[in-house]
Amino acid sequence: MYSPKNLSCGFAAVISLSALAMLAVAQGPAAAPLMVHQLKPNVYWIEGGGGNSGVIVGDKGVIVVDAKTTPAAGKELLEDIAKITPKPVTTVILTHSDGDHVNGLASFPAGITIIAHENNKKEQDAALAAGGRGAPPAGHLPTQIISKNKQDLKIEVIAEREVPQNSKVLRDQDIRITPYRKNLTLMLRLVTIWDEEKQEEITFLTNHLKFGATTIARIYKERWQIELFFKALKQLLRVKTFVGTSANALKTQIWIALIAILVLKYLHLKSQYGWSLSNLVALVRQQLFVYRNLYLWLDAPFEAPPVLTGVHDSQLALGF
């Protein structure tokens, strides 16, 4: 039978493991050398340089996800990619407009495809217009955007694409549009999906013609959830790097981190004290080696530990 004391110790043990688990989600210091981790035969994660980057080696070229914090780090990233494959970098996907995602683009070759959400491009354009701080050079701004459809567009469907089976994609169309009050015509793509949660259709507009329809929808819909998830892991668990890079090592560390977050969130919801999750994580670390009831501490965190009369008074006899 489990007692509150045993359960408290169990929670402490799981949280202790999370403190030891190293997950590659935190942004390494800019001065540190980059570290290359192979996740799949053609997929790599490159750590350091003020931000994390993903590398996908394709048949004809390399796709990079985020370009580091500085031109120097971007140059080092390209050098590490050259050690992995002789194929050229053809595409960069930007998940955010912060400097640790875009500033390294200054070292990338001209003429590559740079994909971002339309708001990402607007923020980079504004930063460049304000003097360039926090933005790459003008020749390295996004060349292809993903955006939600606008209501003031005249749309003409010129081709219907095949819709993936057993998916939420309703339509995938090549279109010609004429923006409101603008004397120009654009050849773009319109992807419509069914949002089960909101019970409504969502339509996405992009000039990227190669990605699958489900990929385009997920880039827009899930970008913030992915960003917030990794932000919570790196801030709350203080994770820095992977201990191992084998498939088993990565899965083990990821599961430990997920279990720790789940346990901490459970404690957060159970407590009657007005914790923020970050404060709870910071203070629960201090209780890992304190002999006390964790449930009682959650509701009265500033009370002194109980007096342990008789617990440590006797000397254990060695059996030899």
User: Which strands sit side by side, in order, in the main sheet?
Assistant: 1-2-3-4-5-6-7-11-10-9-8
What structural category characterises the helix and strand content?
alpha+beta
The percentage of residues in β strands lies in 15-25%
Radius of gyration over C-alpha positions, nearest whole angstrom: 25 Å
- Coarse morphology: globular
Unreliable stretches covering 5 or more consecutive residues: 1-30
Please give the count of helices.
8
Cα distance spanning the termini: 33 Å
The overall pLDDT, averaged over residues, is 78
The main β sheet shows up as: 11 strands, mixed
The ordered string of helix (H) and strand (E) elements is HEEEEHEHEHEEEEEHHHH
State the helicity in percent bands: 25-40%
Q: What report would you give on this structure?
A:
Strand 6, helix 4 (118-129) and strand 7 form a beta-alpha-beta unit. The protein is globular, with a radius of gyration of 25 Å. Mean pLDDT is 78; it is low at 1-30. The protein contains 8 helices and 11 strands. Helix content is 34%, strand content 22%. The chain is of the alpha+beta class and 320 residues long. Helix 1 (4-20) packs across helix 6 (247-270). The two termini are 33 Å apart. Strands 1-2-3-4-5-6-7-11-10-9-8 form an 11-stranded mixed β-sheet, sandwiched between helices. The chain has a domain at 146-212. The longest helix has 24 residues, at 213-236.
